[in-house]
Amino acid sequence: MEHKHKYDANGKQLCCTLEEKINLKTDKDSGCCTTHKEHNHTDDDGHDHEHSIGNQTTLQMFTPALISFALLFIAIGFDNYFPQTWFSGWVRIGWYIVAYIPVGFPVLKEAFESIRKGEIFSEFLLMCIATIGAFSIEQFPEGVAVMLFYAIGEIFQTLAVQRAKSNIKLLLDQRPDEATVLKDEIATTKKASEITIGEIIQLKPGEKLALDGKLLSDNATFNTAALTGESKPDSKLKGETVLAGMINLNTVVQVEVTTAYTDSKLSKILEMVQDATAKKAPTELFIRKFAKIYTPIVVFLAIVICVLPMLFVDNYVFRDWLYRALVFLVISCPCALVISIPLGYFGGIGAASKNGILFKGSGFLDIMASIQVVIMDKTGTLTKGVFKVQKVVAIDVSEANLVKWVAALETKSTHPVGTAIIEHAKEAEKGITVTDVEEIAGHGLKGKVDGNEILAGNIKLMKKFNINYDAEIDSTPFTIIVIAINQKYAGYFLIADEIKEDAKQAIESLHKINIKTVMLSGDKQAVVDAVAKELNIDLAHGDLLPEHKVGKVEELKSQNLKIAFVGDGVNDAPVVALADAGIAMGGLGSDATIETADIVIQNDQPYKIFTAINIGKQTKKIVWQNIGLAFTVKAIVLVLGAGGLATMWEAVFADVGVALLAILNAVRIQRMKF
Question: What is the pLDDT of residue 70?
Answer without folding.
Answer: 95
